[in-house]
Amino acid sequence: MLTKHEQILKYIEELEVGSKISVRQIAKELDVSEGTAYRAIKEAETRGIVSTIERVGTVRIEKQQKKDIDRLTFAEVVNIVDGTVLGGSAGLHKTLHKFVIGAMEVDAMIRYIDRDSLLIVGNRNEVHKVSLEHGAAVLISGGFDATPEVKELADKLELPLISSAYDTFTIASMINRAIYDRLIKKDILLVEDILRKDNQPVIMRVGQQVADWQELVEQTGHSRFPVLDANDRIVGIVTTKDVSGETNDVAIEKVMTKNPITVSPKSSVASTAHMMIWEGIELLPVVDGRKLVGVISRQDVIKALQYIQKQPQVGQTIQDIVLTHFSLDRSEDKAVSLVGEVTPQMTNQLGGVSTGVLMILISEAGSQAIRRIKNVDLVVENVSVYFLKPIQIESTIQVRAEVIDIGRKSGKADVQIYHRGELMGKALFTAQVLDR
């Protein structure tokens, strides 16, 4: 039987795209408390199936797939630009394909306006009307209002009419930034990307016995299985260690490990790898809510990390931006160095290199030093910084790393930061090794 929380999520998923929902409405229709309804709506928002807009409410939206992640819904645009919806709220769930800045004459502008695009323009009532008539939503910059006629047309055509206090250039920059952030997210490998949907996990049920576990081991060659209850919710995981010394007639729920560590389909592969190493886990159940949707092994994660390293990146992360200004020097026998210049993007408000940038450089140099000796995949475990002197903007620095200890499961490197031959910082870098 589904919990009240799960019933609400199922109810929301079955609503038509564009439907409005509220805490009070959910509580009344499903006979649940407003607190329970609120928590379920927030989880639906996290899953990307609803969007909450100030002064409009919560709207059911289409869940975007990774291939469409560079497109935004109009509801998301409203939140990005702190906008006010003047009309056409029924179309907030729609996706915009491009945006156009209305800085030209109307006749020339029409050539660039397509259906499902967004026109960003100031206080030009004639342009607002023409844009809506051509199937494009309108975002009015400068905080201006629209005429009653335009608002009525937006409602009729179900095309959002939005007003934002920001100027046109700022609005365009904010939307561009949101799309760029999504492109970065598009490149990040998630658990759902490596989960084999055609391969259903082998499971055990509450009520089965150790004898059933032994039979599954013989059939599959595996020894770790998630345990589900009657509602397909995961309640434990059973391994060789759990059943060791137990007789065949012992119930599996009495020996299983309860409340096992799990990940969601939206967890990144990198964080999942770190968790598996840190906790010493070989198999992780993947759950959506509390429902089991699959399992991933340490081998699955290692293969995924190796795949990531071979892929070109579309959107640059902060780490990418920093490292593009540094070159790798392997001329020394026992050490590697990153050499480059501190650019304005890498500094803090005082004009010195930021601590975050130094952490990126220390981690990269330490990782490169360990990989030079042992070609393995690494997960950063600890960085202990002993001291740092201020390093100012436009300084050329050398981040030198030398391995001081390496074993089967971990590696350590001594990292030193130099500027003009003077020691500016020192750190101990430790990483866990992912067995291939």
Spell out the CATH superfamily of the largest domain.
Answer: HprK N-terminal domain-like
Gyration radius over CA? 27 Å
Number of domains: 4
Strand order of the largest sheet: 17-18-20-21-22-19
Which CATH class of the largest domain is shown?
Answer: Alpha Beta
The number of helices is 16
User: How would you state the average pLDDT, rounded?
Assistant: 85
Approximate strand percentage? 25-35%
Structural class: alpha+beta
Shape, principal axes of CA atoms: flat
**CATH architecture assignment name of the largest domain:** 3-Layer(aba) Sandwich
Number of strands: 22
Largest beta-sheet characterization: 6 strands, antiparallel
Tell me roughly what share of residues is in helical segments.
Answer: 25-40%
CATH names the topology of the largest domain as Udp-n-acetylmuramoylalanyl-d-glutamate--2,6- Diaminopimelate Ligase, Chain: A, domain 1
Terminal CA distance: 42 Å
Low-confidence stretches: none
Features:
436 residues; alpha+beta; Arc Repressor Mutant, subunit A; Udp-n-acetylmuramoylalanyl-d-glutamate--2,6- Diaminopimelate Ligase, Chain: A, domain 1; CBS-domain; 4 domains; six-stranded antiparallel sheet; five-stranded mixed sheet; 16 helices
Notes on the protein architecture:
With 436 residues, this protein is α+β, with helices and mostly antiparallel strands. It folds into 4 domains: 4-57, Orthogonal Bundle (Arc Repressor Mutant, subunit A); 66-186, HprK N-terminal domain-like (Udp-n-acetylmuramoylalanyl-d-glutamate--2,6- Diaminopimelate Ligase, Chain: A, domain 1); 192-307, CBS-domain (Roll); 318-434, Thiol Ester Dehydrase, Chain A (Roll). It has 16 helices and 22 strands. It has helices spanning 4-13, 23-30, 34-47, 74-80, 106-110, 125-133, 148-157, 168-187, 191-194, 210-220, 240-243, 252-255, 269-279, 298-309, 318-323, 355-373; strands at residues 20-21, 50-53, 57-60, 72-73, 84-87, 95-96, 99-101, 118-121, 137-140, 161-163, 204-205, 225-228, 234-238, 257-258, 283-288, 291-297, 326-329, 335-341, 377-388, 396-406, 410-419, 422-434. Strands 17-18-20-21-22-19 form a 6-stranded antiparallel sheet. Helix 2 (23-30) crosses helix 3, helix 6 packs parallel to helix 7 and helix 13 packs across helix 14 (298-309). The longest helix has 20 residues, at 168-187. The model has no long low-confidence stretch (mean pLDDT 85).
